């Protein structure tokens, strides 16, 4: 009897302690691990080349990268700026055209059946192979780069949106039929809103891909154009064996991708906001 | 059973339905439903009671015979008016619309002024006791409340004919009883004809003025029972002797249908 009382007491004490240590606990559970891992990797990256006596142009240390970025920050900043503009335009193109084409395909089964297979085939051709052709057609420079970013971001939008438009609940569809709704009323008031979660998933994939597309585009097309974005800066740095700056550009591209994803994710949550599970979970 | 008279609001004329798979869902169903009736289609699963209801809504076509509403094909009635409303087993609300926006959907699809729609939404939401929830989203409501919104939406179009496909089957017993009583109340005030699909004998007797008992494989009409218990009905009627007799009668026809199937 006394023993059970004792365990009850400690149990209650533990329960009382929990909410007070809330922030510390979540910090320890969720953030402490990744932060520690990050610091260890950075430390090893700094120390191993030092121990092995590696030259900075083979494997630059984090401090070398930081130094290179600081020295040439003007070039780096300009490259980031150009890449951001190009990938945003490319992404917007793939979003708008992707959604429009999906609506068109979904409005007619014949159209979807005849055209969608070719969209898939188009997707299987690697962008790197198409890029030179795009440059021939659109000229070296911004236009080609945006087109390449569009090409790579286009398919995820189409395939996801189309899937969403086609997976409307059957009885919902019947309900609209019972109220004598027209085909386009069904599209605007039922199918498009139901497809929103799918569409947002497609846009999230497409936004990070658009940055990849821009960098690939700059690789191929930017060389002739003189001034360029990150892809161009990377090729120049590689040719000149400025490895630390090459690393700085790569890291900048990664940060850009993450930032772009977070922005699109935020917009998606805003749009789905009050009603969809995927958005509600992140809000809680 | 008799003939499908001219006075019937809904007429089944020797209706048969065979699915592509070869399953016979309905066989020679022939009867009429008078205006103002509350009729339950009662039967085991697979007896085609839902199929029959869906035919009245024009969602399914008869293989042989025909179903007429007001002497016209259901699809034509739907094209021309809001006379037929349907309530599914699930509430089927659009999650991105508020309660009010969900309720006015049928009106919106037919066009008309937004002001009128709002007034109509308030009228029907008051009828189901959800006047204070116009701005709520479906996810904020309980299962029973969602079904209330679904019923309100069906009423918004002021239908002559309300079709309900096991609307209370997914609800808990207490919520179901409340909604049953409210539905009867609305039926009497709005003077509609209700076609109600159920597999629950007690529910059928409690609600209906008439019960169409159906048997399975192939789906046939095995009896039409007139339930002559007075309205307004109350839950306490369930303990009365006459109530028990109707339950027994309906159950006998249900078993009889099952028995016939085993023998033949």
Automatic annotation (TrEMBL), chain B:
Say if the entry is tagged with keyword Nucleotide-binding.
yes
Any idea which UniProt keywords this protein has? ATP-binding, Nucleotide-binding, Transport
The residue ranges of the ABC transporter domain are 10-241
Q: List GO molecular-function terms, semicolon-separated.
A: ATP binding; ATP hydrolysis activity
At the top level, the lineage of the source is: Bacteria
Gene3D superfamilies from the UniProt entry: P-loop containing nucleotide triphosphate hydrolases
Q: PROSITE patterns annotated for this entry?
A: ABC_TRANSPORTER_1 (PS00211), ABC_TRANSPORTER_2 (PS50893)
- List, alphabetically, the SMART domains matched: AAA
Q: Which PANTHER family match?
A: ALIPHATIC SULFONATES IMPORT ATP-BINDING PROTEIN SSUB, TAURINE IMPORT ATP-BINDING PROTEIN-RELATED
- Record's protein name: ABC transporter ATP-binding protein
Give the lineage. Answer: Bacteria, Bacillati, Bacillota, Bacilli, Bacillales
């Amino acid at each position: 009897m006394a023993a059970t009382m004792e365990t009850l007491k400690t149990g209650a004490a533990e329960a009382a302690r929990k909410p007070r240590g809330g922030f510390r606990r979540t910090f320890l559970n969720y953030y402490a691990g990744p932060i520690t891992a990050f610091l260890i990797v950075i430390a090893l990256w700094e120390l191993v080349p030092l121990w092995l006596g590696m030259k900075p142009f083979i494997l630059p240390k984090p401090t070398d990268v930081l130094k290179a970025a600081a020295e040439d920050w003007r070039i780096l900043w300009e490259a980031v700026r150009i890449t951001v503009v190009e990938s945003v335009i490319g992404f917007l193109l793939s979003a708008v055209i992707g959604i429009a084409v999906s609506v068109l395909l979904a409005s007619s089964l014949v159209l979807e059946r005849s055209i969608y297979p070719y969209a898939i085939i188009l997707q299987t051709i690697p962008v790197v192979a198409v890029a030179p052709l795009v440059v021939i057609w659109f000229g070296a420079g911004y236009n080609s780069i945006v087109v390449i970013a569009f090409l790579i971001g286009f398919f995820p939008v189409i395939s996801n949106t189309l899937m969403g438009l086609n997976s409307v609940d059957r009885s919902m569809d019947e309900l609209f039929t019972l109220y004598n709704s027209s085909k386009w009323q069904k599209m605007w008031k039922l199918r498009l809103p139901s497809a929103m979660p799918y569409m947002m998933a497609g846009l999230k994939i497409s936004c990070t891909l658009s940055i990849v597309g821009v960098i690939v585009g700059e690789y191929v097309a930017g060389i002739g154009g003189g001034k360029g974005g990150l892809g161009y800066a990377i090729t120049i740095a590689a040719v000149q064996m400025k490895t630390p700056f090459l690393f700085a550009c790569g890291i900048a591209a990664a940060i850009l991708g993450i930032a772009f994803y977070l922005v699109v994710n935020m917009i998606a949550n805003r749009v789905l906001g009050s009603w969809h599970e995927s958005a509600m979970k992140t809000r809680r | 059973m008799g003939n499908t008279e001219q006075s019937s609001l809904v007429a089944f004329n020797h209706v048969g339905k065979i699915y592509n798979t070869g399953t016979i869902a309905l066989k020679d169903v022939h009867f009429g439903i008078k205006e103002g009736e509350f009729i339950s289609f009662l039967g085991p699963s697979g007896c085609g009671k839902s199929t029959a209801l869906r035919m009245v809504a024009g969602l399914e076509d008869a293989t042989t015979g025909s179903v007429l509403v007001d002497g016209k094909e259901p699809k034509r009635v739907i094209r021309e008016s809001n006379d037929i409303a349907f309530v599914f087993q699930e509430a089927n609300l659009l999650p991105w619309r508020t309660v009010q926006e969900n309720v006015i959907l049928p009106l919106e699809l037919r066009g008309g002024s937004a002001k009128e729609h709002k007034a109509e939404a308030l009228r029907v939401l008051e009828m189901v006791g959800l006047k204070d929830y116009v701005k709520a989203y479906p996810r904020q409501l309980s299962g029973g409340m969602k079904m209330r919104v679904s019923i309100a939406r069906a009423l918004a179009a002021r239908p002559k004919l309300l079709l309900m496909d096991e609307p209370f089957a997914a609800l808990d017993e207490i919520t179901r009883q409340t909604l049953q009583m409210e539905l009867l109340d609305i039926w009497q005030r709005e003077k509609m004809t209700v076609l109600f699909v159920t597999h629950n004998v007690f529910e059928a007797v409690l609600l209906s003025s008439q019960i169409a008992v159906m048997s399975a494989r192939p789906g046939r009409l095995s009896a039409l029972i007139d339930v002559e218990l007075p309205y307004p009905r109350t839950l306490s009627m369930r303990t009365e002797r006459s109530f028990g007799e109707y339950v027994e009668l309906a159950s006998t026809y249900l078993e009889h249908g099952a028995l016939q199937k085993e023998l033949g």
